Amino acid sequence: MKFYVSALVLLLAAALVIGHDVPCSVDETIKSILSQHYAKLELECVFVKNATAYSNCPEGYTATGCSCGSACGSWDIQSSNVCHCQCANMDWTAARCCRMKLP
Ligand SMILES: *[C@@H]1O[C@H](CO)[C@@H](O)[C@H](O)[C@H]1NC(C)=O
């Protein structure tokens, strides 16, 4: 039992040391690769507000978030480009819509 416990502690310590070093450098590597390739990639976003429970993004845009009137915090995104507020009697629904702007 004692051996089991100390082996576990050793394993945990090793996991902490390794876990601290490796993901960090992997993270940096991925970041530098991404920034090399996507430095010029930009997001173009618009805000659409509608006086119903639905708000549609313009063609080519994807909904990234929604806001609802009447302090309603329950919403979902339908077909990736339509914001839907789930509360009854919604007075307005807003969608934040973004698309990639290629250089
Ligand atoms: C506003 O809602 C109406 C009714 O659902 C819909 O027909 C219209 O396309 C919506 N407009 C926008 C900009 O989402």
Instruction: Detail the poorly predicted runs.
Output: none
Give a quick account of the main beta sheet: strands, pairing sense, barrel closure. 3 strands, antiparallel
How does the overall form come out from the CA principal axes?
elongated
Rg over alpha carbons: 23 Å
| Beta fraction | 25-35%
Keywords: Disulfide bond, Hormone, Secreted, Signal
Main location: secreted
Organism: Engystomops pustulosus (Tungara frog)
GO molecular function: hormone activity
Summarize the structure.
It contains one helix and six strands. The chain is α+β, with helices and mostly antiparallel strands.
What does this structure look like?
It is a single chain. The chain has one helix at residues 2-38, and strands at 42-50, 54-56, 62-68, 75-78, 82-85, 93-101. The chain is an alpha+beta fold and 103 residues long. The protein has one domain: Immunoglobulin-like (Sandwich), CATH 2.60.40.4230. The strands form 2 sheets. Strands 1-6-3 form a 3-stranded antiparallel beta sheet, with no helix packed on it. The protein is elongated, with a radius of gyration of 23 Å. The model has no long low-confidence stretch (mean pLDDT 80). The structure holds 2-acetamido-2-deoxy-beta-D-glucopyranose (NAG).
